[in-house]
Design a protein that fits this description.
Layout: E1 8-11, H1 17-28, E2 32-37, H2 40-50, E3 56-60, H3 66-80, E4 85-88, H4 103-128, E5 136-141, H5 153-175, E6 180-187, H6 193-200, H7 204-207, H8 211-220, H9 230-241, E7 252-255
Parallel strand pairs: 1-2, 1-4, 2-3, 4-5, 5-6, 6-7
Helix pairs in contact: 1-9, 3-4, 4-5
The structure holds nicotinamide-adenine-dinucleotide.
């Protein structure tokens, strides 16, 4: 079950956290993976974590650049001959308070989290057309913050945008007769550097609470009483990428320990 034997996947933001766990799982499930991240350091981290594998390649790729997307898709076709799966995972979270944030912060978050996903979806659909009847699958990493408010205006808006971009492209592909399924995943708080960096930015003098206090209060918002692990999100991504989810498109899979259930 949940196999992707022989399939070729492109995973963005693969240098750590959810992207790294997804890359590892796709390889274990029989896939070949072009892993990408915005800097070469991430590529080094990925190789250190996974090791050298014929089925794995890495490319430096900033998802906000149209030219970089062209280059990355070309590399995938050159290295593996096709692309069957795209995991739009790259994302950022910045410190956001509506009363303090400037427009540049808003733009930066939207650029990576939403524009980057649009560029990826557009590029992948064009490349997957060449697969004919086998088509492809696209999994967009949104967040519970694309379902409910609570993070910050730009992060919430970008992740909400990913949710509806997913549904729009899913419906368009299906109605156009393209066998390309597009779904989103919505993780709760997952133990990665993204949230560790956010906690580290807490300044008790300015914010009125310590990093430990905010960590504890956020943990308590998950009825299961803990943060999630990157592998727990990767398993949901693998499910949506594989034929086990063959009748799912435009749907949203929530992996949040019950956060949005209450
Ligand atoms: N960790 C969480 O609690 C959580 C919850 C919900 C959703 N998410 C989402 O999951 C995804 C992965 O996050 P993570 O928690 O693994 O974080 P992470 O910081 O560990 O990994 C994100 C990766 O994206 C890369 N990246 C950032 N900007 C990029 C760009 N412009 N181009 C290419 N790569 C870029 C980073 O270098 C990093 O390797 C993100 O989209 C994030 O918003 C995370």
């Amino acid at each position: 079950m949940n196999r992707v034997d022989g399939k070729v996947a492109l995973v963005t933001g693969a240098g750590g956290g959810i992207g790294l766990a997804t890359t590892r799982l796709l390889l274990e499930a029989g896939g070949r993976v072009l892993a990408s991240d915005k800097d070469a350091v991430a590529g080094g981290a990925l190789r250190a974590a996974i090791g050298a594998e014929d089925a794995l390649d890495f490319i430096e790729h900033d998802v906000t650049s149209e030219a970089a997307w062209k280059n990355t898709i070309a590399r995938c076709l050159e290295r593996f001959g096709r692309i069957d799966i795209l995991v739009n995972n790259a994302g950022i979270a910045l410190r956001e308070r509506l009363d303090e944030m400037d427009f540049a912060t808003w733009r930066k978050v939207m650029d990576v989290n939403l524009d980057g996903v649009f560029l990826g979806v557009r590029a992948a659909v064009a490349a997957m057309r060449a697969n004919g009847d086998t088509g492809g699958t696209i999994v967009n990493v949104s967040s519970i913050m694309g379902l409910v408010g609570g993070a910050g205006p730009a992060y919430n808006a970008s992740k909400g945008g990913v949710r509806l971009l997913t549904k729009s492209v899913a419906a368009w592909c299906a109605r156009d007769g393209l066998p390309i399924r597009v779904n989103s995943v919505h993780p709760g708080y997952i133990r990665t550097s993204l949230i560790e960096n956010a906690f580290a930015q807490v300044d008790p003098a300015r914010d009125g609470y310590t990093p430990e206090e905010i960590r504890e209060s956020i943990r308590a918002l998950h009825p299961m009483g803990r943060f999630g692990e990157p592998e727990e999100v990767a398993r949901a991504i693998l499910f949506l990428a594989s034929e086990d989810s063959s009748f799912m498109t435009g749907s949203e899979l929530v992996i949040d320990g019950g956060y949005t259930a209450i």
